[in-house]
Amino acid sequence: MTFKAFPYTPDDVKALQNPAIQLYGNRLFSDQTVSELLSEFLLMAFSPKQAGRATFETALPSLEQLCTWDNTPLKYAPKTRLNLKLFSFLGASRLDSRHQTHRDHHKLLIEKLHSQIQVEDLEHKQDIIRTIENLFLGFQGAGSGRTWCAQSFLPISSGFLSGESIWKETKADRDNVNDWSELIEKRSSYFDMNQHLFFARGGELLYLQVCNALRQPYRRIATWCQDGAFQLSADEQNPKWLHSQLNEALLNLMNFCPDTLTALAEFIDTRLDPVTPESMDGPESNRRFVFAGWCNAESWQEGYLFAVDLLRLMQSNIDVMERIYLLETACSMQVLRTLAMQSMRLMNGTKSCIGPDYRLAVSAPEENRPVIRRLSQQSVKAVEKIIFQSLRSNAINLPEDEGERNKKLKHADRYYGSKLFVGLSKRLGFVVPKRGSGARFVLNEQLLRLLVVTTVPVGGRLTFDTFKELLERRHGLVFDAKGLDRASERLCGKGIYLPADTDQWLQEMLEAAGFLIHLSDSCALIHNPADDREEDQ
After folding, report:
1. pLDDT score recorded for residue 535
2. Model confidence over 40-71: pLDDT tens digits?
3. Are residues 381 and 332 part of one domain?
4. What is the rounded average pLDDT of the residues 427-456?
5. pLDDT tens-digit readout, 289-341
6. In this structure, are strands 360-361 and 477-478 parallel, antiparallel, or unpaired?
7. Which phi and psi (to 5°) does residue 197 adopt?
């Protein structure tokens, strides 16, 4: 069976030998960190892009492009920002990873910056340079144990967004390279920018899911929203409106960062040494474009929910750093939703499903009731089983040789399937404990804040019961006695009796975080802490 893909039908034989890539798209991989998922997503949004002969620099392709897409790959031109990474991360990288050419060029950058600082006191110049180095090091996002060029920044500024570059130390030593200019003259020989080890295409896939969702006909979206009872606003159910607002919100996202910081980053990367960025990225007239991957075309449902989540987050009036961290969490939660929904869709033999067709039984962080702990543990195992079985479905093309088939499946399980789901969930604090048996679903303050900000509309309120209903419809999360009973029916084939106060811990957690307003003993309202209308009063 061939799964329908967007934006084009792939013919990458090697990639398509992986059952997980066949099902989910190219690709969701366990080595990509939470921070790198968002960084890669935003890198696509803020890089020049090409589709066929058309080149554009908007965050998203135009709606006309999306609606008339004709089996064409999407390409984008990421900047490498080697100078900025070298300046910021060399001093904090492993000593054995600092090649002499890197040290020499780092020294040259420092000297050039030193000459540009207009103060009389030489010691003061050194203090300024150290302050700038520490400033940029403070925005380190991921890869602290890697070579400096394989690290990345927190994506708070467009000047920090960069593609992956892997240092080929063995080849450089073998060739006895001793000058920086030799490295960048033969860039592909010594800096590999196509391995996708850490920027593993997960952010690309999430970006493509959003594009795929926004190209769906209005009537299809409206009917789906009505059937799923997602309670999206009339505007949010209109893909044309959502496209316009999301494109604008993405472009405005970096405006929260001071212009001075972005200008300083650009100055260090391009003005101190303009030869390196032009050699690595190509001149403006002939940029180095790379191919993005593809996503499963049937993932538009979860892609649309994700697009709404992103817009609500980006339009919220919250601190810039908190917004970035919530966006990182949202990207990771979307990976989990993608794995579960597409696996369940395949197992049910349907092309679409109205919301998550699974239930994740969420227990209190300090849950002491054995029956609920067991149900939550069974819920984790059930999702693992769904993902595990989907990769072995008859719809997946696998090698006929049993040994080769088992090898492919084992690799997919470990890096792309059920182990990815559980591993990423543990990184988020969505599954505990991090080590040992008894893995179960819980919430922490970060996840709770994300769910509130993306579920409660700005300027509105939701009752506690409605809030729980929407979390079940959009994410498959259940907390109270009725929800856990439904989860038990699905997991065990029989219901479970629980007292009415089973979700009391969730109320207390919401109240402690300042999200809950008690109207009476029987009624409570959830309000959005990121409500900009309240902040402006």
Report:
1. 42
2. 999 999 999 999 888 999 999 999 999 999 99
3. no
4. 96
5. 999 999 999 999 999 999 999 999 999 989 999 999 999 999 999 999 999 99
6. parallel
7. -75, -45
Tell me which amino acid residue 408 is.
K
411: in domain: no
Domain that holds residue 384: 360-390+429-536
Is residue 381 located within the same domain as residue 281?
A: no
Backbone angles phi, psi at 145, to 5 degrees: -95, 5
| Cβ neighbours of 17 (radius 10 Å) | 16
Q: For 441-452, how does the pLDDT look when each residue is reduced to its tens digit (9 = 90+)?
A: 999 999 999 999
Q: CA 537 to CA 529: how far, in whole Å?
A: 14
Domain count of the chain? 2
In sequence order, the β-bridge partners of residue 526 are: 462, 516
Secondary structure percentages of the chain, helix, strand, coil, to 5: 55, 10, 35
Report yes or no on 413 lying in a domain: no
Q: Whole-angstrom Cα distance, residue 269 to residue 370?
A: 56
Residues 61 and 193 in one domain: yes
Asked whether residue 351 carries a pLDDT value surpassing 80, the answer given is no
The two structure tokens encoding residue 130: 């150290």
Coil, strand or helix at 49: strand
pLDDT at residue 470 tops 70 = yes
Q: Where are the beta strands (DSSP E) in 193-349?
A: 290-291, 294-296
Structural tokens at position 20: 């997980």
What the block records as the tokens of 155 is 């994506």
Distance between CA 216 and CA 532 in Å, rounded? 30
Q: How far is 392 from 387, CA to CA, in rounded Å?
A: 9
Question: What is the pTM assigned to this prediction?
Answer: 0.95
Dmax (CA) for the chain in angstroms is: 80
Same domain, 286 and 378: no
Q: Which of 497, 449, 171 is nearest to 326 (CA)?
A: 449
Residue 321 CA to residue 343 CA, distance in Å, equals 34
User: Is the per-residue pLDDT at 531 higher than 80?
Assistant: no
